[in-house]
Design goal:
- This protein is α/β, with parallel strands linked by helices and 295 residues long.
- The chain has a single domain, classed as Luciferase-like domain (TIM Barrel, Alpha-Beta Barrel), CATH 3.20.20.30.
- 38% of the residues lie in helices and 14% in strands.
- It contains nine helices and eleven strands.
- Strand 2, helix 2 and strand 3 form a beta-alpha-beta unit.
- Helix 3 crosses helix 5 and helix 7 runs parallel beside helix 8.
- It starts with a strand and ends in a 7-residue tail after the last helix.
Length: 295
């Protein structure tokens, strides 16, 4: 199992120096990847149901620092050249698909093919309204946007005729280093799991219990059979978040369930000017997961 860690592109620790420090520490401790989260504009009031808290309320202030995920990953990747980089997750339907495809392929090219795209439909309707993108059709647009971006990354002339996007007569270079960008689908609803089984390169459930993870894997296996895909070939990238801790017991359960990549959160909200609390937690997780130090 590979193990990654969330780096501070959001919250009070979000700074150029902290991103570099945490990425380098992750590399030294033997982690395999670093990940970032995504928001573009935080509304003053959010009434949308927040799916990652039991109470359903968004609990971040509108003046919370939230650095762009792709720029943050470029900064981290330059500091820690041995690590993969990923989004957990980027809200694809907030963006223009051609611009996003160019940004992603450029990031992948600049980092030597280290990028993993964790993609999701989003949950905050107010943010969609601010940016002028439709919230109601975001799931359908997400599927179409990914199909269009994959054409852009193919190196062939693009001729795309979809319900929402119609573009043709161009190519986009440079191509991704590996010929494609692995896309792991966030979300744990039935729709999200079905989306993953149909077109995903992996499933990235975030902030759910181990029982919910097990139930989701059962659904994913069923949907894979429905779409004629081999369940065993789909990576599972689990992120516990603040739902449960990474311990010897939970890590053993991850291995039992077949998790292929674990993404651990760091305590980004705590006051920790010298990163001592964050570093201690990363060191603890590294020990639990049996990572080999590179120092």
């Amino acid at each position: 199992m590979e193990v990654g860690v969330i780096i501070p592109n959001a919250g009070p620790k979000a700074s150029p120096g902290n991103i570099v420090s945490v990425a380098r520490l992750a590399q030294d401790l033997g982690f395999h990847s670093v990940w970032v989260t995504d928001h573009v504009a935080l509304p003053e009031q959010v009434k949308s149901w927040y799916p990652y808290r039991t109470h359903g309320r968004w609990d971040y202030r509108s003046d919370t620092y939230w650095l762009d995920p792709l720029l943050s990953l470029q900064w981290a990747a330059a500091a820690a050249p041995k690590l993969k980089i990923g989004t957990s997750i980027i809200v694809v339907p907030l963006r223009n698909p051609l611009l996003l495809a160019k940004q992603i392929s450029s990031l992948d090219f600049l980092t030597g093919g280290r990028f993993i795209l964790g993609a999701g439909a989003g949950w905050m309707e107010e943010e969609f309204n601010l940016i002028g993108q439709s919230y109601s059709n975001r799931g359908k647009r997400l599927l179409e946007m990914v199909a269009l971006m994959r054409q852009c990354w193919s190196g062939e002339a693009v001729d795309f005729k979809g319900e929402f996007y119609q573009v043709s007569g161009f190519r986009m270079y440079p191509k991704p280093v590996r010929g494609n960008i692995p896309i792991i689908w966030g979300g744990h609803s039935d729709a999200a799991i079905k989306r993953c089984a149909r077109t995903g390169d992996g499933w990235h459930p975030t902030q759910i219990t181990l029982d919910q993870l097990s139930e989701g894997l059962t659904k994913l296996r069923t949907y894979c059979q429905e779409f004629g895909r081999d369940f065993a070939t789909i990576p599972i990238v689990a992120r516990p978040g603040n739902i449960y801790s990474v311990t010897a017991e939970s890590h053993a359960r991850h291995l039992e369930l077949g998790v292929t990549h674990l993404v651990a959160d760091t305590p980004i909200q705590q006051e920790d000017p010298k990163l001592e609390i964050l570093a201690a937690e990363m060191e603890r997780i590294a020990r639990v997961c049996g990572l080999q130090s590179r120092t």
